[in-house]
What we know:
Number of strands: 15
Structural class: alpha/beta
Oligomer: single chain
Shape: globular
Helix content: 25-40%
Largest sheet: 6 strands, mixed
Amino acid sequence: xLYHDITELIGDTPLLKLDARVHGLDHVELYAKLELFNPFGxxxxxxxxxxxxxxxADVAGNGRTLIEASSGxxxxxxQVLAAMRxxxxxxxxxxxxxxxxxxxxxxxGADVRELPGLSECPDPTAPHDVFSTIExxxxxxxxxxxHPSQYTNPKNLDAHYRGTGKEIYDDIGPVDYLFGGLGTTGxxxxxxxxxxxxxxxxxxxxxxxxRSDFIPGIRSxxxxxxxxxxxxxxxxxxxxxESAAAIDGTLxxxxxxxxxxxxxxxxxxxxxxxxxxxxxxxxxxPVKAVIIICDRLESYLSYVKKRRPDLFGxxxxxxxxxxxxxxxxxxxxISPDELEALDGHHGILKIxxxxxxxxxxxxxxxxxxxxxxxxxxxxxxxxPFPASVRLVFICPxxxxxxxxxxxxxxxxxxxxxxxxxxxxxRDAGKRLEVGARVPPRDR
Length: 443
């Protein structure tokens, strides 16, 4: 079949019936909606195009720039669409924690602005959030930007109502269960609305990450309240999934079903198997259930490697995340007063693990900035610090830094953690150094 524009390939994705001999649920017909077949690789292609289709030509013609809160797939699709029309995207985020996602956005030409809050250790000192930052930028330069607003735009829901949900129904008729990961919540809620209109008894299950964990592409239960489209009463159940289960599900989808999907889809698959394994047949017939496969595996290799180094020929237990809770019991901490008293002493290396913007806004004087994900990569290859140097790790509230101190002490380093982190330093009235030294450019 001949197509004349790449946008004509958005939607009409395949629906794959998963082999019951693999998933082991004899009373379930389990289907996977393969959104990874969209041209830019994810379920967000539908939303991106739906939000800008009617206005993108005018946006580009008037020299405006797309501006959006996105951590990956939506930004990727919007940037491709914008570039094709002669404009570009500015993406604001505090959630890019996967190197491949960041690199693809930069490669495609997106203007990515990473705000404080990048660290997995919560940063209450961060003065900005993504949504208020976008509002302030647009207010400061009226008419310069076009904001699709995926977290509040009803076109997000409509794209999946008219597209994803209708396509599922056209392929297999009424559905008993729909499982989907909750990010903007648009794909699950939009598709489920269409399917529930045709089967009011259909159950919608939302999948999130556990509160203390991180799975790229979906939010935790606490984070969902930041999403304008989120309606908690819409779902029969919202199931939290640990990253370990998400990775196991990702591997089974790939090696047993041939579906090379990302960890959001692995989490959805794991939740579906658990929930459906506890459900009886419907009126003497098999249960008909669908999971939404959001995107592809290749963009998340660094994420999987950090959590499952054994899959890449590295021994388990070799990362900061693998520390047992008891390893933190005897980790020494240094108070703000004690650290201030050491100012000017040689042989002390203070390492601030926050994102670059948070560091520039204010940091402990004399500290260097090595972002937490970069530190984990470095430590995964061996501890790069000399034994003669005393290390002081600094994070927002002193939790992640304590793990770093414990890990490096196991490798023989003299390491400690700033008790209470940057928050405790600030609350003690200590001076915060502002800005960062930028090396001169070659002339």
